[in-house]
């Protein structure tokens, strides 16, 4: 087969997929539209909760991220229906992030970050902070279960930068 033909096929098939995966870098990599990936994302989101109303926060949980590749605390307990403001501090000298999700989606996100390390986020279930920065996530935990969180910057999750939110009834 002709090399130009193969490259052309790859460009037609791969480039649109990469563009969708990357999303709008100024506001995250949201994949809106009528494709199945957005439906799957909504289903996953419903499993872990939804963005919370900042005016209806039940309590604030402080979380620090450091260069030992750890979150403190790494285990957080909440009740179903509770809206939590995570006040997140990067106490390290490297950039870190906190992303709420299920373990499968966090691993997929970490893999995407490896291929696009300068990707910017703007989704409500995550915050990316430079050294010394502080920020927040407001999240409503809608059902009992476990919600994972991790830093998906390349190498951080693999080094143990993970945690869990135990959501009780």
What's the gyration radius in Å?
A: 17 Å
- Overall pLDDT metric: 79
Low-confidence stretches: 3-44
**How much helicity do the residues have?**
25-40%
Which range does the strand content fall in?
25-35%
Give the structural class. Answer: alpha+beta
Q: Main β-sheet, in a few words?
A: 5 strands, mixed
Annotation, overall tally of beta strands: 10
Shape verdict = globular
Oligomer: single chain
The end-to-end span amounts to: 60 Å
Secondary-structure map:
Layout: H1 3-22, H2 36-48, E1 50-51, E2 59-66, E3 70-72, E4 75-79, E5 83-90, E6 96-101, H3 103-115, E7 126-129, E8 134-140, E9 145-150, E10 162-168
Features:
alpha+beta; about 170 residues; 10 strands; disordered N terminus; 5-stranded mixed sheet
Overview of the molecule:
By secondary structure, the protein is an alpha+beta fold. Helices cover 27% and strands 33% of the residues. It contains three helices and ten strands, in the order H-H-E-E-E-E-E-E-H-E-E-E-E. It has helices at 3-22, 36-48, 103-115, and strands at 50-51, 59-66, 70-72, 75-79, 83-90, 96-101, 126-129, 134-140, 145-150, 162-168. The strands form two sheets. A five-stranded mixed sheet has the order 1-8-5-2-3. Strands 4-10-9-6-7 form a five-stranded mixed sheet. The longest helix has 20 residues, at 3-22. Residues 3-44 have low confidence and may be disordered.
